[in-house]
Amino acid sequence: MSPVPPASAESPRYYASIDFDALWREFPPAPQFFQSTWMLSPDELRALQNERFLRQMERAWQVPFYRRHWGAHGLEAGDIRSLDDLGAIPPFSVHDLREGTNANPPWMDYIGIDPATDEPVPLILQTSGGTTGLPRPMIFTPRDREVMNIITGRRLYMQGVRPFDLVQVALSMGLTNGGVLAREGIWKYTGAVPVMTGSGAQTPTRRQIEILKAWNVKFLVGFPAYVRHMGLVARDELNIDPRSLGVKGLIVHLGTEDRASLEALWGADVFDTYGCNECGTMAAECHHKSGMHVFEDAFILEVNDPDTLKPKPVGEKGVAVVTTLFKHAAPMIRYNMNDVTALAPGACACGSRHKRITAIYGRSDNMVKLRGVNVFPEAIGSVVSQDARTTGEYVCLLDSGTGGREEMTVQVEVLQAGSERAAVEKDLAVRLKEALGVSIKVEAVERGAVARFTGLTETSKIKRLIDRRPSRSQQ
Ligand SMILES: [Zn+2]
Q1: How far apart are CA 85 and CA 407, in angstroms?
Q2: Which one, of 137, 123, 138, lies nearest residue 14 by Cα?
Q3: Cα 23 to Cα 147: distance, rounded to the nearest angstrom
Q4: Could you tell me if 234 and 254 are in contact, meaning their C-beta atoms sit under 8 angstroms apart?
Q5: Please, is 10 exposed, middle or buried when counting C-beta atoms within 10 Å of its C-beta (0-12, 13-18, 19+)?
């Protein structure tokens, strides 16, 4: 085989594949974004979305997954004439993606790129967390990726990141998208410097703290449970008060974790963010922390009833359904994320009219029905982390009890061994009953004991629910 390719085969070049000036006019990076698109009126924003939505639909019709999925529901191209028709498009969920044709992996039918016929462009492949079987591949074109990077930059700017700040990213670097995407966005669109310590398996927690201290890191990006763990290791094992470290912001997917205790531990603002592997950051809090603004020039976010998928009124909980307005590879049209959230009422003090979501309360497919009551493991975590006698670490163990009814036991780590355990068990059982309306058994365990279930220091994908009922696969 000849090592030299034929002269006709050009290697595609990243910078030549994008018209950057046009891209930046369309999706302004920070800080320009905050003087332009960010301040559009709802009508102006709607008009911008409508135009981008129709272009995105045109692209989606070229993707085999949508031709198949929509075809099966009798949808035709002419049925969708504007954004007002969005509700007529059948949604899909991750289960539909998993069932996609695997004829030529990783070129799944939802991606819409065919190496046999498409012009080559520089591509990047990242995946879902993949708890069972192979992870789900997602491929990004240069333009798709740059839009996601611009949005990461906007988010961080909004939360106070400035040039020359060091931003430590305690997210796995590998197949999953989070860490890699954070690095690209910080590096290309903030002027700040990413410090890629990765998960606790890549850089041990004590070393993470030593680096943070020695290099005067200003922002920390990570999962809240791990950021809390880092703070406790600093305080209790290294004798370093996290509040003395000068960290200004903790950038996390907060969910229902307790903000106040995390802010108190670090003496830093906590900013909530919502994103996914397929789309990057979709929504983030501004410095007013009054809900996460959706980046509406790039996404349409619906909050819908989980059963009917009809829109929920402002303030009522439903599932997040996302439509992208920029993706060439794997455009997402009415992607039911199964994440439970609500639209935030009123206007934000920052003046932007970009709509806001309150919080992510849990994944609807992680929900457990206990004696008729819907329980999210995340809501249990919220109660646990408010108790200062615990580390905030917990795991929910689901078993079948007598008579076949589900029994849940929550194992909670306590800071002090011994006499406090019984009191913590009793108090938390009462608090959980109050908060969730159902009795849950609480078992206090020693510090570090639940990590074997959750994978806290090993992975970014922390498990909070272990289903031990017979014939159930683990979540
Ligand atoms: Zn705001």
Answers
A1: 44
A2: 123
A3: 8
A4: no
A5: exposed
Q: 255: which 2 tokens?
A: 């969910």
The full DSSP string for 340-390 is EE-BPPS--TT---S-EE----EEGGG-EEETTEEE-HHHHHHHHHT-TTE
The residues near 146 (Cβ < 8 Å, ≥ 6 apart) are 18, 20, 23, 188
Helix (H) or strand (E) holding 58: helix 42-60
pLDDT tens-digit profile of 410-446? 999 998 877 788 899 999 999 998 888 888 999 999 9
User: Which amino acid does the sequence have at 30?
Assistant: A
CA distance 80 to 86: 7
Q: How far is the CA of 268 from the centre of ligand 1 (A)?
A: 19
> Phi then psi for 377, rounded to 5 degrees?
-55, -35
Give 25-80 pLDDT, tens digit per residue.
999 999 999 999 999 999 999 999 999 999 999 999 999 999 999 999 999 999 99
CA of 288 to the centre of ligand 1 (A): 6
Q: How far apart are CA 291 and CA 356, in angstroms?
A: 5
Q: Ligand 1 centre from 305 Cα, in Å? A: 26
Distance CA 410, CA 418 (A): 18
Cβ-based neighbours of 294, under 8 Å, separated by 6 or more: 282, 283, 301, 354, 355, 356, 357
Strand partners, 275: 281
* Ligand 1 center–CA 352 separation, angstroms: 6
Alpha carbon distance 132, 380 (integer Å):
25
Rg of the chain, C-alpha, whole Å: 23
Question: In this structure, how many other beta carbons lie within 10 angstroms of the beta carbon of residue 32?
Answer: 13
Contact 142, 119 (CB under 8 A): no
Ligand 1 midpoint to CA 359 (Å): 14
Phi, psi (deg, nearest 5) at residue 93:
-130, 180
